[in-house]
Design brief:
The chain is α+β, with helices and mostly antiparallel strands and 687 residues long. It contains 23 helices and 27 strands. Residues 211-216 and 565-626 have low confidence and may be disordered. Helix 3 (97-108) crosses helix 4 (112-119) and helix 12 (302-311) packs antiparallel against helix 18 (459-474).
Length: 687
């Protein structure tokens, strides 16, 4: 029995050894397997796994910078890019196509079938809308539709609506400039793309490398600053709209130029359009007519013709021409004037705008010299402004000119120019005969095709023509009398151009225009207005000159360039015009009552405009002062006190508030004499 017991114990001990051996072998194999696996993962599959790890923990982001901003000369914003939500779908992820299409079509104001086609597109991603309002975005997010996503995009915003809309242009899908400055400076304005890497945590949330959420690279587009003054642009557009609508016209254009610098302060076109509404914009309305369209200048050509003739010494200011009593037969055609004139000197030809007189001056000057001056003035070539598609006008080669062409082009028919070309030509006269390129962009410098200045006319020739243009506005029988501003001398020239018909020849449509120098001698500003197809009257002195007058009043008041008090200008007579026939003595005495009333109204209006300016710089005008008390009613107290303090008057204040309610003395009364304490302002609080 002992032997059996010992045998059983030996058997138990043998199985224990086997178990231990098996466990040891198992762990050895497992250990070897782990080492083999680790070696495989690190050596064989290591690079691939490392790449997968990078893709899981790092993500590539593409960011596009905002489009650059556009400013006016004073830094006021004209165009800006703002973030918006763009809606896109992944068609393969859409669960219920019909339900999703109906829901989105209702919110996006799209046709349901169109949305449905996009949802069933084979593409991996399809955009439905690029601009969506915040309220619409919130409703779509609440619906939690499968396959519907949003992305951040930029949209262009014009805070001033239609202000300078044709000049600014607009931006299309993909942030691409399509018209105007947006197109001309698209490369500079467009933001650049930046690609960078971000980290993700276990939940997939992303952590950017910098606190702003993007790389510290400047990817936004660069800005552009124009020479336009948005306030003067507003005045120009408002008065242009009034001129076009009041005269039942089709369209209009206005340009304001600062003569010393050649900078364009306003470039207006009517009808307007709102560039914030990208859809449905008519190409005809969005077109910048001031730089792209050509027209026959008509009688506004006459000062330029006279300057060329004076420069070539073929005429003198005292030279006279027989205007044939209104009808001049030449080259089997009849050239007509609106009135019957006899013998007129050169200055009177400009003043009364005689076509016959201009034609005879042109014939005396000759085709080669007139054509050469047209080229020097910039006709037949673009001005070089950074405007895409700028027109170069129509100036036929010299060899194609006939004697009749010479005669008609002398008074502005048969040659076509753009409004900016006409402004450029008159800038030569205003700048004492020196060609100076127009300027539209203040920053960046050097973006315009700038030509070096050169002399076209002698200074004394240019100043002689300036005096003739002054007579157009301020002397009897001048065609621009409706542009008069009491107390301020301006010069100008009217134009009434008959438009060419669609089948050749001339039709019954006209373009009325007026170009003014402010002031008349040594001008600081050029103001030009053109009214296209006005009815029933089509004369530039009727349809365009009043708009220039109002535009000039508002602009000078804003700039502080109006005289402090109303002044009745007395400019010296042009040298060499003593031989001009004097206006009949009875002409002044028999001036119509309506004209006298208009002059009185103009004086009152000018007085009011002038006196509202607390600080102003008088222009050089030889004058007799006329003083009267302005209307302070409705004016802020501070401004009223500033005006009175300039007169040495400390007003007595009655009541409480910051707005003047009434006054004593009444508006229009003479200023107080020695007893200046009698001036009383009654105040009220703003409602």
């Amino acid at each position: 029995m002992r032997a059996a017991s010992a045998e059983r114990q030996q058997t138990v001990r043998d199985w224990s050894r086997v178990k231990l051996t098996c466990v040891g072998v198992f762990f050895c194999l497992a250990w070897l397997a782990l080492w083999a696996r680790a070696g495989y993962l690190q050596i064989v599959a290591g690079p691939e796994l490392a790449e997968k790890a990078v893709r899981q923990h790092l993500a590539s982001e593409v960011d596009k910078g905002a489009r650059g901003e556009i400013y006016d000369r004073g830094g006021r914003l004209l165009a800006k890019s703002v973030e918006c939500e763009a809606l896109f779908v992944r068609p393969k992820e859409v669960v219920d196509v019909d339900k999703t299409a109906a829901f989105l079509a209702n919110l996006l104001h799209m046709k349901e079938q169109r949305v449905k086609r996009k949802l069933q597109s084979p593409s991996s991603m399809v955009y439905l809308s690029w601009r969506i309002g915040d309220r619409t975005v919130a409703r779509i997010r609440e619906a939690n539709l499968p396959g519907v996503y949003f992305s951040k995009e930029f949209t262009r915003f014009y805070p001033n609506g239609h202000l300078a809309s044709q000049l600014m242009g607009f931006v299309g899908v993909g942030d691409v400039g399509l018209e105007g400055m947006e197109k001309a400076f698209d490369t500079r304005l467009t933001g650049r793309q930046a690609k960078y890497v971000v980290q993700r945590d276990a939940s997939g949330r992303r952590f950017f490398f910098d606190s702003q959420g993007r790389e510290l690279a400047d990817i936004n587009g660069h800005g552009v600053r124009l020479t336009i003054d948005s306030q003067i642009q507003f005045f120009a557009e408002e008065e242009l709209e009034r001129a076009v609508t009041a005269n039942n016209a089709k369209a209009g254009t206005a340009i304001v130029v600062h003569v010393p610098t050649g900078e364009i302060l306003a470039m207006a076109n009517y009808p307007f359009f709102n560039p914030n509404v990208g859809r449905g914009i008519s190409p005809r309305i969005a077109r910048n007519h001031a730089a792209l369209d050509v027209f026959e200048p008509g009688s506004t050509m006459k000062p330029l013709l006279v300057a060329a003739a004076l420069q070539e010494r073929v005429v003198r200011p005292t030279s006279t021409f027989n205007c044939e009593n209104g009808k001049f037969a030449f080259a089997n055609r009849v050239i007509k004037d609106t009135h019957s004139y006899g013998v007129l000197p050169v200055n009177m030809i400009v003043r009364v705008s005689s076509n016959i007189g201009a034609a005879k001056i042109g014939l005396q000057l000759g085709s080669p010299r007139l054509h050469a001056y047209f080229e020097k003035l910039g006709f037949g070539r673009p001005t070089g402004l950074p405007i895409s598609g700028e027109g170069k006008g129509l100036l036929r080669p010299l060899k194609a000119w006939s004697p009749l062409d010479l005669a008609t082009q002398s008074f502005g028919q048969g040659v076509a120019v753009t409004p900016v070309q006409m402004a450029q030509a008159f800038l030569v006269l205003a700048n004492d005969g020196v060609y100076k390129p127009l300027k539209l962009v203040a920053e960046p410098e050097g973006t315009e095709a700038r030509r070096a200045p050169y002399r076209v006319f002698d200074a004394d020739v240019a100043r002689t023509v300036q005096r003739m243009m002054r007579e157009v506005v301020h002397e009897e029988h001048g065609t621009g009398r409706t542009a008069r501003i009491a107390g301020l001398e301006i010069g100008g020239k009217t134009g009434t151009a008959q438009k060419a018909g669609p089948h050749g020849g001339y039709g019954n449509k006209y373009l009325g225009s007026f170009v003014s120098f402010v002031p008349a001698l040594s001008p600081e500003y050029i103001v030009m207005v053109m009214v296209d197809e006005p009815e029933p009257s089509h004369y530039g002195g009727v349809v365009a000159a009043p708009a220039v007058r109002e535009m000039t009043l508002r602009m000078l008041s804003y700039l502080g360039r109006m005289p402090e008090t109303v002044q009745l200008a007395q400019a010296p007579a042009a040298p060499g015009t003593s031989g001009a026939p004097a206006a009949p003595a009875a002409a002044s005495a028999l001036q119509p009552a309506r004209a006298q009333a208009d002059a009185a109204k103009a004086l009152s209006s000018a007085d009011k405009e002038i006196m509202e300016i607390a600080q102003s710089t008088p222009m050089e005008i030889k004058a007799v002062e006329v003083r009267s008390v302005p209307n302070f009613s409705g004016m802020p107290l501070r401004k009223a006190v500033e005006i009175l303090m300039q007169k040495g008057i400390v007003p007595r204040l009655e009541g409480q508030g910051l707005i003047v309610n009434k006054q004593s003395p009444a508006p229009g009364a003479p200023w107080p004499g020695d007893n200046k304490n009698e001036f009383v302002l009654w105040l009220s609080r703003p409602s």
